Amino acid sequence: MAFTEPTFLFYFLIVLLLYWSLRSTKLQNGFLLLASIVFYGWVQPWLPVLVAVEILFSYLLLKQLVRASRHKQAYYYFCLAVNLLPLLFFKFGPVVVPGVAFLSTGSIAPGPIESDWIIPVGISFYTFKLISYTIDIAHRPQSINFLNYALYIAFFPQINSGPIDRAARLLPQFQTTRIWKMDYLKSALPLLVMGLVKKMIIANSISHLVDQIFQLDAPSKLMLYAGAAAYALLILADFSAYTDLSRGIALLLGIETSVNFKFPYLALSPSDFWNRWHITLSEWLRTYIYFPLSRKWQRRYRSHSSIFVWLFPPLITMLVSGIWHGTGWNYLLWGAYYGLLIALYQKLGLASPQSLTRTWQRLLAWMVMFNLILFGWLIFKSSDLNWLARGFFSAPWGVTGTAIIAPLSALSQVLLYSLPLGVKWLVDQGTPRFPVLQPLFYSLALALLVVFSSAQASDFIYFQF
Amino acid sequence: MKRILGFVAVLGIGFIVANVAVVLISNQPYPYSGKDTFDLTARTNFTNDINTLKPRVVLLGDSTLVDAVDVKLFEKGIALKTISLERPGGASALWMLQLKNIILASQVIPDYAVILFRGTMLTVPDFRTQGDYFQVLDEIATPQDQWIYDLAIYTHRTELERYLDIYLPLYKQRTGIYNAINDLGRYGLPSLLYPQCDPDCIDQANLQVFRTRKNDMLWDDRIKAAENYLYESDHLNFNGTVKRSFLPAMLQYAREHCLRLVFANFKTRSQAENAASSPALEAYNRDLALYLHEQGAAYIDFQKDVRLTPDFYKDNYHFATSKDQLFTPMFAAELQKIILSPQPGSLPPGCATRALP
Description:
By secondary structure, chain A is mainly α. Chain A is 69% helix and 0% strand. A five-stranded parallel beta sheet of chain B has the order 2-1-3-4-5, sandwiched between helices.
């Protein structure tokens, strides 16, 4: 069930009415868990069973881990393995397990697994929640409430595509009884409208163009650039739309979840980009992979010039990020690309945007970073790396005669459909002085939604990761 | 609470102003008429080709016809002058309009109109009538075609949609606004930088680039999703849907003007791959064939034609390059059989000999 489907709207209205009629924490949490199970099992009823087994098994192991006076390490690693195995099985099973390889293309060639193999929706997201909770509990043992733990993992606004909130953010909110406040509506409304604008106006309008360009046999270099720009817009609009809707829905339930995007294409360096893009995933990777590796190797090598200190931590972290996104070489390469970029920027002392004080420096840094981001998306989106290499090395520039018209037309569409995001940024900047800008912007957004509502909703891209 | 009310009030006022602006710009009396229609004039004189070329056979169909039939070869095969009014995105509402406002409105009416269709296209009148498809219909239609509008569009609207059509200007004018925004996107930058290239020139440039695709099969999902509508269980009930379709009117118009209608049921790739098609579709095809026979129309059934193998197709509906050279002679031969043995009673007595070559 996608958030933009009418079925979800009806479902959510019923959930909302019943939820706010409950007056105790336990009942509210129990009902939210039930609503999450129904939501998650709407299309494939076996999915809640899978997640329930994972939660239950993980909970029992965590209890042992907290209680145990001996073999704590064993319980810890066993629990992590239990958390991780279903993800590895479903995501990489068809590729790496010889016994089931026949279900896939039989190789780890780039691109989606073209088979009947079903990867449970959101498994990458809730697995990372399971793991983070296991690590947190192992380091700071505390009593675990099964209901709250299960709700934290399966919370329906987040289960399909995040944000990957840490337990420390959600559990305290689950432990208190929520009482309806109009502020929830005031905060949720802009998120919901903006989420719909991003999905129904921007993403749905630009997705056809992206398909067209990425299915061209031999696009010119300019067309490749237009394709990268179009995909950059599409993936931002689509994914941040889901986050906005998820956050808006959670707010209507009295739960505040994390911001996941902060105008990522305004980033001045790769680290800055990952502080603005999919923020909860970045924080997860930083907390559980980058910092531990970095600390460990810094202690061991004590020299910043060692590649174990400056290169490997970001490289390994971003490789994990790449693998998290998918099984193709393109994702791995995309991860390596960002790992190298982050390391290189850090080595050159360019990682921190604060170090750039002059306007021209910031402008130059932005232009370089924006184009690096576009190149990254080309790697990410290309299911065939030969195709990308051909586009870069042997395709014509496509800037002469009528060849330039089609890429210009594509760029023109990208610019037009970027406008709502640009205007939103300006409105956010101007709101402190002119508060009326916000409701005016959202009234225009509502008007556009009426116009674009005839377009059919399609799936959110990030469901597949 | 006060801040929220203020927010909602400004939001509401802004939304109302946007609607008022649309009313003022559209220059139509408000509230709008609940029953819409096609605009006043057909924008092109589509009968020109028929009047000039005087074809004996006219082909109708959607993009499958474009890829499947080489008109020159077809003409040679049947030894009759043939033209094609193919239109990508066409379906029964468009074919009805083409029949009524182009073929039967021409000075010399052809002898045969051959419609290449698939699935339940003939009896699902609202298939491909919304959004951009409506613009295509509107090019050929006039307000006299109100009944076509009603059957294709109006009767399929819910009460809520009809209500919004009357009272919510943004909803009523959504197609126009949507197209204007899309056009701005598509033509904006090229028109600015290359003023000599008008929208037609930009469309041509786009067509030239996007004509070839790396993997046509990837388009399948998109097309299939749209085509699923044709295979919904309600639509597969031929006898339940035929009276509410354009098929009876097509047959009647054709009879009145001594035009022989020939319906060719196209085979899709998935049908070529699976020897057995769904029982519901088979029953539909049986009922359709029987109905057309009773009505005196000719029917060509490619559904069971074993010559159409999966390698003919580049996707589920369209033939691969050069396969038209194989299919066209088959199609022409089937039509030739019909031409040479006209069914008695299919046309009024005065028409009987006209249809012979």
